[in-house]
Design goal:
This protein is an alpha+beta fold. The protein has one domain. It has a four-stranded mixed sheet, with helices on one face. It is globular.
Amino acid sequence: MRYWLSAASSPLLAWVAGSVLITALLPGCGGRSLELEARWRPLLEVKEAPFAPEGGAVTIGRTVYVQDLDELKAKEPVRFDALMLHEQYHARSQKRVGLLKYSALYGTSAEFMAEEELPAWALQLEHLRGHGQAVDVLSVARSLSGYKTVIGNHRMISLGDAERFVRDVLSGRWGNQ
């Protein structure tokens, strides 16, 4: 867990990065919203926001942001639940670490990002697999290999490693090493 050392050695950088990320993301978040069931706590709602990735989601605190609420509502229940499991993982981590520190680390450390995203994606993929849903391995791997830190533009995972990760999760091998 070297990212804790890097953040601790530069608390000003961590604070500035976290402030910039939160400040940049929150304007314009007044779109339509959907209240979530209690089973998704600490998440409370999903809101439309222009900064959310197309077809994806961003969690900040207790809110999940998406570009198109209608697209989210149209998802099959199994796929909706898989996405909410992923986002719930992030919400719990943000609560545990603290939103500002979490944002700073996520935006500056590819290692921290991977420690957050890979278990969240594993939950999502395992849920889909467990409910007999098809998963496009290469599409998910491409998505994962596209994750980069905001500051430094460091890639979280290579395409080859991402593809191995997805295959390992779907075969039940990930996390059992």
